[in-house]
Amino acid sequence: MENIKKNIKNPSYLQSSFTLLMFFAAWGIWWSFFQLWLTKSGGLHLSGAQVGTVYSANSLTTLILMFLYGSLQDKLVIKRYLLIFCAILAALVGPFFVWVYAPLLQNYFWLGIVVGSIFLSAGFLSASGIYEAVAEKLSRRFDFEYGQARAWGSFGYAIVAFIAGQSFTINPQINFWLGSAFGIVLLLELLFWVPKAEREADNKIVLRGEGSDTPSVKEMFGLLKIKELWFIIILIMFTYTFYTVFDQQMFPDFYTGLFSTSAAGERMYGILNSVQVFGEALMMAIVPILMNKIGVRNALLLGVLVMFVRIGGCGLAHDPITVSCIKMLHSLEVPLFTLPIFRYFTLHFDTKLSATLYMIGFQVAAQIGQVILSQPLGKLRDIIGYNHTFLIISSIVFVAAIYGFFVLKKDNEDVNGDPFIRS
């Protein structure tokens, strides 16, 4: 209770929480049903291979932009210029999908792939890591728990996932226009709500020249020479990659296919997605407490094991009730990946490079995995079906868990950033 009162009195916590809430609302209202929009007859009715191509192209463009975004935000430190640019694109998501993206994919598929990957990556897929990185920087500067602020992002996604499930069955275009509405609110908030402490910190950053010693894009590529960073990249490529490949590219169509009608499946998917993300928001607040007890390394390994069980369980299940119960493990999995991995970088690497390292070691690594695996796994799904494909993915994750056990550093080993002390 005392911590809640402290947060309510912290303007930076309130502002960061609202920013994450609105960004994930603007994104989740359409992203939660993006795969269904691509595959269902009410949308574009693309094949599994074509959907894989869409996701691979998005990941490739995201991969490129993440290097640029990470380097730029490290120089900006906590300044909002990049976030405002991304919010402008979020505000335009409705017109883009309805008047540009859908017609291009239907009539000029490869041109639509290129244009869409640039817009979606610039406004959302690359932007998500920047919103999170800025919130994490603010949490360390202004004394609040990042995980509790990030939980509001999950809360926003949960609310709109429920709304999206109802509106999608009426007209999928409604979700895109709602995305624009949330994007406009996000843009206005970033422009006009700047806490006094943050304005003062901005001035000090200018006076001290903070951020001027952050790496250029060329120097950032040089970080790839760090052997320890590659250990993390390989682990993430064969684990968190499947957050998109499984959860976004495959699961929605798989789940809705378990019901007698598409409309019933879509409505139930919206409800399930909403409940799951509500659980995720709760876990975002609880996992930091768990991580303080078991440590950063153990929390991350636990997240990998939860993913193995969840994906493998969906491969073995054949009814919507069982699959729904297994899906709820997602609520625990996401916080066990996102929170420990960020703390791992600030623990074992220079904190000045936290946004860059998070981009390369986590976000970029996952995108590389998606570029490599999205299209082949989409083709594999066309050939052997969802269940067998899920079992193959789960086997890969299990092997990655064994690999992670041997390569991840212990919390008291090679501490080059902020030390971690268990409570």
What is the arithmetic mean of pLDDT? 87
> What's the count of strands?
0
Largest sheet: none
* Broad CATH class: Mainly Alpha
Measure the end-to-end span: 19 Å
Q: What best-fitting shape do the alpha-carbon axes yield?
A: globular
Structural class: mainly alpha
3D structure, described in words:
The structure is a single chain. α4 runs antiparallel to α20 and α8 packs antiparallel against α20 (354-384). The protein has a single domain (16-407), classed as MFS general substrate transporter like domains (Growth Hormone, Chain: A, Up-down Bundle). With 423 residues, the chain is an all-alpha fold. It has 21 helices and no strands.
Give me a quick take on this structure.
Keywords: Cell inner membrane, Cell membrane, Membrane, Transmembrane, Transmembrane helix, Transport. This protein has 21 helices and no strands.
Describe how the helices and strands are arranged.
Elements: H1 2-8, H2 11-31, H3 34-39, H4 48-76, H5 81-91, H6 93-107, H7 109-125, H8 127-142, H9 146-170, H10 173-192, H11 196-208, H12 217-222, H13 227-237, H14 241-245, H15 251-256, H16 262-294, H17 296-316, H18 320-327, H19 330-348, H20 354-384, H21 386-407
Helix pairs in contact: 2-8, 2-9, 2-10, 4-7, 4-8, 4-20, 5-7, 5-10, 6-7, 6-10, 8-20, 9-16, 13-20, 13-21, 16-17, 16-19, 17-18, 17-19, 17-21, 19-20, 20-21
Membrane topology: Multi-pass membrane protein
Protein name: MFS transporter
Subcellular location: Cell inner membrane
